[in-house]
């Protein structure tokens, strides 16, 4: 009579659920309890199939190189991997006695993982390791995606849109190895409550003009002045910021003797962003017995690589073409997904800081309210009886209040009704004069040698054989 095994003796979630849903009531051959059971032979077949797809046997003897190292270091060689029974018992979570029987059955079988003709049989104490997960077809499809963008079609391309949809479907269900979401919320009462933004000035007059209305001139540029960026195409205005002012300054790459204005922008409502820092840690919690295991693990592998591909440093000469994939992704995420995404968090290539881009729909900065008739003066110098010094100040000359009668403030003037996501912190504005810039480098010497070549004759063009 065929041996039976119950759900209590197989605790691996996928196998356990299969037994509970499809098993028949019988007495378990191992724990002797009545319950839902499978034939042990059926579990053995499932184990065998999973081993074949996702594991590989390690060498039973050291290679010549390993022998050499072993002799040099006077160390005993250890076979890689785990014993078959240990894998069945510990990783597949099958009761010890049953795991032992399954292992013995597979070891004695002539055709266990590969076809009979391959000669691949279990040895007396086989050891196995999991096969390395690759990203399957995802990388080649990504290469096709970038090539089409650069050389064929950038607009109205259904194939590109379908590829992006397959990458970013179910974003809100993707998790990381430490159980975090790849979607992060920022805003009031969140870890990230404000952003820093910097702008380079090479003209004193332009700087003073910008300080008259810093919420406009230090915020995202008007569309006609929006140049190509990592996450935006020319003409699409977005808000590039950083979580600290040092990173904000580094990102604008100011030249020597220029001036940088930096301001903090407070978030006035909650925004949801795709966090590329977490995308790098993407994993998939799925049973190795699931038919979808390989497919889902390959996508998780690709997503973990995608983060670095989207944030890698790009040489200035290559930006026009190399920014196309990230621009396409940002455009897709801002408008085409089934969940609302306001921007992207990504690591800075200029250091250890963090950058944030807010898409156009979420990049509006609320205007700074001043009484009608106010005149603003900006000074960058302060006189004193003993001399003067550089000192930036913004003076708002407001009209004298004559009518003390209480006036009703129009709704358009009430704070918070502009629907902007950001407000500038006027007290945070700083001006940085850029001195000499030092670049850390790694040097490599160039060696030149002369070697006589017997196949070269003076004045001849003879080639080597």
Automatic annotation (TrEMBL):
Residues 214-372 form the RES domain. It holds the Pfam family HEPN_RES_NTD1. This is RES domain-containing protein. It comes from Elizabethkingia anophelis.
